[in-house]
Amino acid sequence: MSPYLGEPRDLYHGRALCVLKPRTAREVGDILALCNAAGAPVIPQGGNTGLVGGQTPDASGASVVLSLERLNRIRAVDAAADAMTVEAGVTLAQAQDAAQAADRFFPLSLASEGSCTIGGNLATNAGGVHVIAFGSMRDLALGVEVALPDGRLLSTLGALRKDNTGYDLTRLFIGSEGTLGVITAATLKLFPRPRSRAVGFLGLRDPAQALKLLNFVKGRAGPMLNAFEVASRSGLDLVLRHIPGTRDPLAQPHEWYALVELAAFADGEAERAGAEILAAALDAGLAQDATLAQSLDQAAALWKLRESLSEAQKREGGSIKHDIAVPVSEIPRFIDEAGRRLAAAFPPARPVPFGHMGDGNIHYNVSQPVGADKAQFLARWAEINAIVHGVVRELGGSISAEHGIGRLKRDLLHETKDPVALDAMRAIKAALDPNGILNPGVLL
After folding, report:
1. Strand partners of residue 117
2. What single-letter DSSP state applies at residue 353?
3. Cα diameter, the chain
4. Using one digit for the tens of pLDDT, what is the confidence trace for 363-398?
5. Are 139 and 152 in a shared domain?
6. pLDDT tens for residues 332-353?
7. Number of domains in the chain
8. pTM for the whole thing?
9. Which of 65, 305, 422, 425 has the fewest CB atoms within 10 Å of its CB?
10. What is the CATH number of the domain that holds 15?
């Protein structure tokens, strides 16, 4: 059972009565009915790539881990309706491949896409790098099939685009982190497959210049803008130090960088637009240098720099993580103010901010000081959280943009969420899971 009892960051390790691996939605429902009658807690688990401990049992050993990995069928792909129905254990990469085989595109893209599953993506309302163009999983799902705690199966599956017949039950379960029901399948939106793609990498002075560049590119590219990611030089240095096969794509170092991706449906259209926009941005003084990928391999190399940031930090040592969102216009102010307060309270710490500037989601991670003891550094997690999240609250932001609440941020949620909203959430939980068997201790 060992692989099912821990999680990627090694923050949580638990015990369980057993790990159950059903193959059908009906089996999931039967398991829940039995556990509900016995009062046995159930911990739903997908690819076990979650970063807030929401898929990990506690230390009591009283829980059942319910792995959805064997629910791995592509049930249907309807290219004419731009929809496909897949089971919860299908990996994100498998869903992308199924869409491509039908000459369609499923746009969710995460660094863990080879192992994370659709069920987990839905349970946490995953975002990724293409939210600026396509939205998060709440925007990408047309319907879900859910096993309720009493064993009944609820289904809103189907390619229907408009249904104004009451509460939006589909979205209720997406982002609920396995606390209301267990998602067993979903109907996902598909899109026409892009025929051209351009990836550019730009050197910048600071986040304020990055914001100006973002608005410039949005105005020139319109719906072609697929991703706009930013990273600091401190983050790029870690990638170059720890990730084999990476290199600095620009001739001179810069304090900040932007990775921009355009996609279009006509051959060569994105490449032409990318070249024109990057040249215009340089002429307008919105970047100090830039390069545009000239091949798929070069595009992959540029994306590798961005996607390796988390792994590079792990290899560097201890890292205190923050998955925050603020209004896009406030990102420069957030980064500046968080850095200033952190430097005053803990000068040796090394902020490594990066992320999805296009939708306001910044991963403001803090790496341990050079030569510091990892355990002593991580012991300051709550102190550093309080500094960073204090700035987030002042700017009207969120303490969890795409990773969820899980166990890691449960107490922080109670400090930051509207009490009336929490009461409404508790009421929904009590109505659907009156015995509290689903993921106890997670979220609420």
Report:
1. 91
2. E
3. 69
4. 999 999 999 999 999 999 999 999 999 999 999 999
5. yes
6. 999 999 999 999 999 998 999 9
7. 3
8. 0.92
9. 422
10. 3.30.465.10
